[in-house]
Amino acid sequence: MSDQGATPIPTLAPPIPSGRPPKMTNRGRTAVPISSSNSETTDIPEFEPFGMPGPRGFPPMTEYLDIWDVDMMKKPDESNRIQHRTMLFNTDYLIVRRGQEFQVKIVFDRPYKPGTDIFAIEFAIGSSPQYSKGTYIPVFLTKARQSSWGGRIIGTADNTVTVGVTPTADCIVGKYNMYIAVKTPFGIRRTRQDKTRDLYVLFNPWVSDDAVFLDDENERQECVMTEMGIIYHGAYDDVSERNWNYGQFNFGVLDACLYIMDRSEMLITNRGDPIRVTRKASAMLNSRDDDGVLVGNWSGDYTYGVAPTSWTGSTDILLTYASSKMPVCYAQCWVYAAVFNTFLRCLGIPSRVVTNYFSAHDNDGNLKTDIILDENGRIDRGRTKDSIWNYHCWNECYMSRPDLPTGFGGWQVVDATPQETSDGMYRCGPASVKAIKHGQICFPFDAPFVFAEVNSDVVFYTRSKDGALEPVKVNRTHVGRMVVTKTPGDVTRRDITDQYKFPEGSAEERAILEKAEEYGCQREKAEPSEADVDLVLPTLDVQLGDDFELSLEFINRSNQHRTVDTHISVNVVFYTGVTSSEFLLRNPTVTIGPNKTVKELVQVESKSYLKNLVEQGNLHVSVTGKVEETGQIVTAMKVYALHNPKLTVTVSDGGKVNEEMTATVEFTNPFTFGLEGVSIRMEGSGLMLPKSKYYSLIPARSSLVWTEFFIPQRVGSSRVIVTLDCAALRQVSGQASVTISR
Amino acid sequence: MSDQGATPIPTLAPPIPSGRPPKMTNRGRTAVPISSSNSETTDIPEFEPFGMPGPRGFPPMTEYLDIWDVDMMKKPDESNRIQHRTMLFNTDYLIVRRGQEFQVKIVFDRPYKPGTDIFAIEFAIGSSPQYSKGTYIPVFLTKARQSSWGGRIIGTADNTVTVGVTPTADCIVGKYNMYIAVKTPFGIRRTRQDKTRDLYVLFNPWVSDDAVFLDDENERQECVMTEMGIIYHGAYDDVSERNWNYGQFNFGVLDACLYIMDRSEMLITNRGDPIRVTRKASAMLNSRDDDGVLVGNWSGDYTYGVAPTSWTGSTDILLTYASSKMPVCYAQCWVYAAVFNTFLRCLGIPSRVVTNYFSAHDNDGNLKTDIILDENGRIDRGRTKDSIWNYHCWNECYMSRPDLPTGFGGWQVVDATPQETSDGMYRCGPASVKAIKHGQICFPFDAPFVFAEVNSDVVFYTRSKDGALEPVKVNRTHVGRMVVTKTPGDVTRRDITDQYKFPEGSAEERAILEKAEEYGCQREKAEPSEADVDLVLPTLDVQLGDDFELSLEFINRSNQHRTVDTHISVNVVFYTGVTSSEFLLRNPTVTIGPNKTVKELVQVESKSYLKNLVEQGNLHVSVTGKVEETGQIVTAMKVYALHNPKLTVTVSDGGKVNEEMTATVEFTNPFTFGLEGVSIRMEGSGLMLPKSKYYSLIPARSSLVWTEFFIPQRVGSSRVIVTLDCAALRQVSGQASVTISR
After folding, report:
1. If we measure between CA atoms, which residue out of A608, A467, A594, A460 comes closest to residue A532?
2. Which residue among B25, B420, B694 places its CB closest to the CB of A11?
3. Residue A87: per-residue pLDDT
4. What average pLDDT score do residues A552-575 get?
């Protein structure tokens, strides 16, 4: 080391620092901060001079228009709200849908002089409004100067001018500030920002130029305008219903939806694109990564929050998130789907909640769900790690897909449930339902994952002594057994399985599975020979607390005797298909004469399952066996969703708008033990906001009655829906229909 | 409220809780925790009995094989390492590439009896090894029992058996535990887990069944085996180089790469798929969301970390991340790309760093970059919010794309630089380069974004008095001006622009832009008439600290006089194109005779730019003007990357393996001010690990000399690379070539 001055003096370099750095600025990275918040606004100056003022400043501009008042015509019964179908929103603002004209009345200080007076209506959104980004839109009212949003003068009367404004059908969705700007020879003079003139612009499924255009009024009424919904659960052959109040028109819900996008730091400029909006929202509805809306919990322990089964609607969840700015506890799949549905309907994207029975959920887009049997044909629970959800709920939303080749618009799957075990997928979709049906899973977003949820095979392996596995049975029809949603305009369910899959066993189905394989999905190729003994489990309707009998039917299709070493296992399972406890186990040897049928009876006593029950009261029966004569494997699996006791809900007669009514909930604890820490929740669209009561104890066999007063807000039919929830008994519900007249 | 017992007592329901919940378990959600860590292992039992022991337990099993020793043949000069091309790894373990046989010698307690003795070699990875998931692989050595991985006995000699094992070409990449299992009539007996027998399996571009197969030895040598790289920066017509030591074979680097995947909680079962591995890594290389490897910082203030320009290689960064388990500060695009390149080459995925000059970076997949001029034709910096990066570096990696239709395999763009201003894209790719070239941007992942980076148009608007914007010039050739990478096997650069785009102006180019538009990319449709005055900026080679002259050439292509009101603005810019300060501004009026050329000279003095300099010493000259006679707009923009002083690096003569050598760095501060807080870093692949020195002050005009001793580790040519970095002067470098003989 040589130096030619007093220094340089070398020292040991400091260690390389790591860790959370101080908060970064955009310096060096971007010219200005990019707007990703709809709640931040920039005030546009009240006067923009064209040049320098003269020596005495600008002359008084009394001869130019002055604005006295602006009427947004925003009352629920005014034409803007009715024609834009936003009359149900409980709001103080004008809410319109894009691609469709709305009217504003401007009152000047004197009559308007066409040809002489020049004014424009300006709209701005976000913190850095910019013409070229569509965040600042001046609307001119003459044919000569057209801007992107249409503008025209509809009529004049005295000092009042009625103006029509048509936002483009692809404009940004959110909350705009509005200004009136008057041109003078010296500069632009504009109104001060006035919050009461803020304008919300939503997606518009009624307009053909909008990417969310849905050409079916019945569907639009259901998928945008309907607040009360039904979400299906249970089992494919014993479907249960949950009522849900989406509440998309409730006070504060629209602002909460915009807050969700702000919280995700979604660029303002992307908020007109339903593909980006829905994809971002699928990430934001769960709390993973981004402190989104809902925390998932499948454990059965909901001590620090509300049990997923306890919610009656989305309003509480969204308003709590928007006010606390922290994730809300807790959700499971239908809660994610329901709140996502509120978000979508609120913004005007047609959407519905669908339920897929036997959803292959945790296999990360693989088309195989593996069940490992030991060499005696019994399920090896230690080695069987895949699970099939009894059901899974997701959303479909309707939009065109300009990012894909033609043919893949229409319904799109989006799913906000975090796929924690599938390589950390915390967002899913939009994936075209048509692309899934046709095996075109090479297109964004996440189509292979959704394809596997409805198309996986269940592969049974036996494990030999030295550890090798051999496929012995492939069930190609179990998964994706049925996909259902609520019928538009009705309270019945609609089977939409055919929108996801061609019929099982059809030539198309086979061709499409082969196509999916070309795109990298792995399938089991083995075709193990089918056993000549069939095993059928009964369909049962069992009340929680009942003893019941399982009658297993063994059908010998051969001309010889068959002896089946059978393993019958009855388990309490979570709805995710995960076993909580095995409480009944039988290993009968069943002998069946040639071409005969034998019934094996198994008694299931309530005392054996009640003490092990978790969550939704699902019992999973699996029967596996090995035919002694052939070595072939026989299997059958079925989920029995036990029926919970019901709440009785009654509503007083003769409902009229603004006249007080009562709703009464009755419940009797049917058990021999007390129920502790019981929450009851009640709500009803257009009837009442969510209400809840908490009981520290409902003693054995004891009853409660809760009567609540409410004042209906609008005409039409609706429902009061109620849930009861405690650690020992979940998913108890009741409802009553109400028709309100004027 | 009525109750029939003493209770129930209703109380106010507790408020809905929100906030960070207690840590969740997998209970109810999955049957067992899913393995997402390669560092967790499960020990497989040493004895697995086939049945119950007899009354005196199992008999002594002296007649069955006992294992005395296992030789993994893992020394760098042994055939496994040479044939698998892993000899350069500095490691104590056997590292092989999948789809290719390696050998293991097993020493038994007695000679092996073929046909009688039955044993298997077992491999297990992750915490829940499972046959059906490919995480537990028993390898049988007889033709009768084939397992997924090939196995054969190559030879026997005395008690030693040489075994060949061939992992499948799609197996999981990572670290496996190995066991030898001997079958006895009573059960399986196996070796205890022994860390020294752990096996690393990598991707294999030399094997045609591997998804990363690259059929070009020259490319494979460069993109997998080469540690010393060159990354290009500067300007497209004045390209500069950065030397970088990827160091993928350095001790600890492979473990750090596996740690990155563990840290991302990537499922073990997905780690054989290069699509998933590269996508996950593009997210994990940056610290956004997931506490990944590198913290981005473009601000010029690197007080709490290492300046991005100061790094000489990836080793320090990766080892610091793996030991501290916290993000490392700081990175800009080439640092992300360089460390990502190390990750990819280390795991055996062919990869290279590419540089795109004039990268449209912050426009979120939009094909427009907007520049706003005021009505006099001068850039309106307050309203111009898009920026074009002088250059941007990303990675290409080579793989097949079974998830896409045929034709899109080969090089794939992946990018780890967080796109903070593009809707929070913190991962990017893999996007097929062929798909980008052909406008097929409907396929995953993030193709529209990459397409825009090389294909955007620059649109100049003038803003009229009332705020409306009108496009006045569209430059369709500025963005994506050139894409370059290092030539395989050479130290020159290779222009690969033609792999991303058809020639500018060709029919194919136009067709492909139209196709991209079909997939939703927005372009400027206006074709404003071109001005008949051309403006040309000179190409210059300027040393930092020089005064220089800009000669602006105005070419009048018309037959009339032209008068141009010109605005010349010279700015110090970040490499992101963001302006730091405008230090020179001229507004000359230039008059040009018919068909004449006029030169306008602008003097740029070093004193005016030196005090404003940031980062990489980039000056941006923009000239805009309005032709008085026609109202047309004339523009020209150019970046001048000032050339920094160099370090002089000399290395002692006659380099031999294991013989001490010296490297000497010399630097003279050329400025009239002292340089404070100076870091110097030095490293060289196969020569020395990263070393650094810190000088608190290098006085004005003073020199330093730093001599470092080192011992070369391997034969061949390499380079010693050195950087000097301080707040006042960044990106000073030097290098010396070294050839080491035996």
Report:
1. A594
2. B694
3. 95
4. 93
pLDDT digits (tens, 9 = 90+) for B405-431: 999 999 999 999 998 766 677 899 999
Query: Which token pair is B463?
Result: 């803003």
With H, G, I as helix, E, B as strand and everything else as coil, classify residue B647.
Answer: coil
Least confident of A16-25, A399-408, A463-472: A16-25
Would you give the DSSP letter of residue B131? G
Contact A444 B443 (CB under 8 A): yes
For residue B14, the model assigns a pLDDT of 61
Beta bridge partners of B163: B104, B153
User: H helices within B325-359, ranges in order?
Assistant: 333-347
Distances (CA, A) of B709 to B420, B689, B693, B704: 43, 12, 14, 17
Name the packing angle between helices A333-347 and A253-263 (round to 10°). Answer: 100
In Å, how far are A47, A56, B465 from A51, measured between CA atoms?
12, 14, 10
Q: Nearest by CB to B21, from A295, A300, A368: name it.
A: A295
- Mean of the pLDDT values across residues B724-737? 92
Token duo for residue A263: 């919280």
Measured CA to CA, the distance from residue A544 to residue A552 in angstroms comes to 21
What Cα–Cα distance (Å) separates residue B226 from each residue in A657, B223, B489, B735? 79, 6, 9, 17
Q: Are B383 and B372 in contact (CB under 8 A)?
A: yes
- Cα–Cα distance, B420 to B741 (Å, whole number): 48
What are the residues facing A136 on neighbouring strands?
A124
Chain A, 318 to 357: residues with Cβ < 8 Å from chain B are 320-321, 324, 326-330
- Going by pLDDT thresholds of 50, 70 and 90, the confidence category of residue A6 is very low
Q: Are A547 and A605 spatial neighbours (Cβ–Cβ below 8 Å)?
A: yes
How confident is the model at residue B384, as a pLDDT? 79
Residue among A1, A18, A456, A518 with most chain B CBs within 10 A, to mutate:
A18
Percent of chain A clearing pLDDT 90 (strictly above): 64
Using CA atoms, how far apart are residues B9 and B3, in angstroms rounded to an integer? 8
CB A71 within 8 A of CB A104: yes
ipTM for the predicted complex comes to 0.86
Cα dist. A372→A159, A331, A473, B269 in Å? 82, 31, 11, 18
Q: Are A105 and A70 in contact (CB under 8 A)?
A: yes
**What is the secondary structure of A293-360 as a DSSP string?**
SEEE--SS--TTS--GGG--BSHHHHHHHHHH-S-EEEE-HHHHHHHHHHHHHHHT--EEEEEEEEEE
Q: Report whether A572 contacts A613 (CB < 8 A).
A: yes
User: Torsions phi, psi of B196, nearest 5?
Assistant: -70, -15
pLDDT digits (tens, 9 = 90+) for A389-447: 999 999 999 999 999 999 999 999 999 999 876 667 789 999 999 999 999 999 999 99
In angstroms, rounded to a whole number, what is the distance separating the alpha carbons of residues A251 and A92? Answer: 9
The partner residues of A680 in beta bridges, in order of sequence, read A693, A724
A32 pLDDT exceeds 80? no
d(CA A289, CA B418): 15
- What pTM was computed for the model? 0.91
Taking one residue from A and the other from B, the number of pairs with CB-CB distance under 8 angstroms is 373
pLDDT bin (cut points 50, 70, 90) of residue B227 is very high
Interface of B with A in 361-400 (CB under 8 A): 362, 364, 368, 370, 372, 381, 383-387
State how far Cα B296 lies from the chain centre: 13
pLDDT at B6: 45
